[in-house]
Amino acid sequence: MTGPRDLNAQIESLVNRLRRRQVVGSWCVSIETAMLLRQVVSATRWNQVETLIKVVKEDVGRRLVMAQPRELAVGNIVCRVLRLIREVYNSEDATFDDNSAEDNDKDSNTDDDEKDEEIKSKSSQKIRTFSFYGGSGTGTNTQSSMINLLGDGSPMGAKRASVDDYRKPPNLKPLIISELQEMINELENTYVNIIDQAMEHIHSNEIIMTVGKSRTVEMFLKTAAKKRKFSVLVAETFPTYLGHEMALSLSEAGIDTTVISDSAIFAVMSRVNKVIMGTHAVLANGGLISVSGAQMVATAAKHHSKPVVVCTGLYKLSPLYPYDEDSFNDLVAPDPVFSFNEGDLIDKVTLLNPYYDYVSPELVSLFITNTGGHPPSYLYRLINENYDPDDTDI
Amino acid sequence: KKLLNCLVNAGINCTYAFLHAVGFAMRDVSKVFLGAHAFMSNGALYSRVGTAMVAMMAKEKNIPVIICCETYKFTDKVQLDSFVMNEQGNPNDIVNISTTLAPKPGLLSEWLNKPDLKLLNLLYDLTPSKYITTVITEVGMIPCTSVPVILREYK
To answer: Where is the segment annotated Disordered (chain A) (predicted)?
Structure first.
């Protein structure tokens, strides 16, 4: 068993690597965060669930999020873990204390009223099917938000206080850890689930446009290329030139690839059949935080009425809402735009070089995730299933 | 950059950004001025590649787009999209990158050896008339759909 000192060292190491941007890519970040949180759950000493939640959320979670606030995947995983813990606790508690089914309220909003009747009668029979996505709907006795609004919506902590003193479900820890392991496995299989859908969306002789370099889109296109013949137009994505890497990688897989400059995106859009792109993060309203230039592509596609498909794993879905678009953006060094040896114009001119772009949800037609294809309007359900409203202040 | 030089020397406060920042920069913009290479009889603007992109983004945000164009650039031709007539520049211009952010400069320098990799360097594009608010010419301010009318006058 790792002692608290080792655990602290691990946390410090991840915090430092995040701060120095040594962990690259949302997927790697998610997996590392999930594994670290699993360590935290198994190595920390806790008697009550509140303690565990506090440790995960405030001690570890907040530190990780502060280390790299632009990497929204960290916060997503922390929120997911917290939700998991609460779910496991609630369902264990339900079976542990079966006469008072009333007491086991929870502020989660996942069910219709009809399902509630079914579930209340089922809860005493202790049927608990625990798949990560279906779990909250079919197994645990959750109540709809309307019922909670009318009075019972006290936070879990207040009610639990009296109950916990003398009744603690005994095998919480291994359950939580096994659920966490399931989540990690799901994260590791994200790409497999996404590329399985590739054949449904791409047909022969299509011209597909993409922007930036996304591992997900690359694998998506390469899978489809095994059976279908199509062409890809890659925008070079100045100034990071990620488009060049993407084009090289795609052409090496035998896909007919053409690189165009960013300025020609509108010009070629009339010949493109669909736009497939990846994203850095997905926000709660369905908007994207994507590489700079993605907004141009999406708007051009909308004007030509071409569908915009976003391939992303669900770990990139964040419960945050873009009240202010700028809060998610970074302005990076303007050197590529206007370098120092251009002369003394530098003092008289303001230079802009944003790294990310906000794409509004109206521009996106479809999200292809590891749980299937969803329109932007469905994302609020996914957020309700996977995150708790109490956790968005991490 | 030459334009930037002129404007700064004239004492105008300038901000310089690349095309990828157009969404970000468009928030503070109240008018857009663009130049023209030619003006088609269906009111479409034939200009440097990227013009259409800027005009479209401005139209999205309801910002007026003003084209400055002399009447000798008006033409009888009609054109619907950027593909039917265009000019290709040197594809090696896409390969040549000299910025500090690029991880491997000249990543595509072997593109000729790769059978599936092509580079396309378009020089011009067509901006549809619906994105253009008005055109400033030496005969006055006209809507872009009046281009054939002016041409008729000259005949």
So the answer is: 95-123
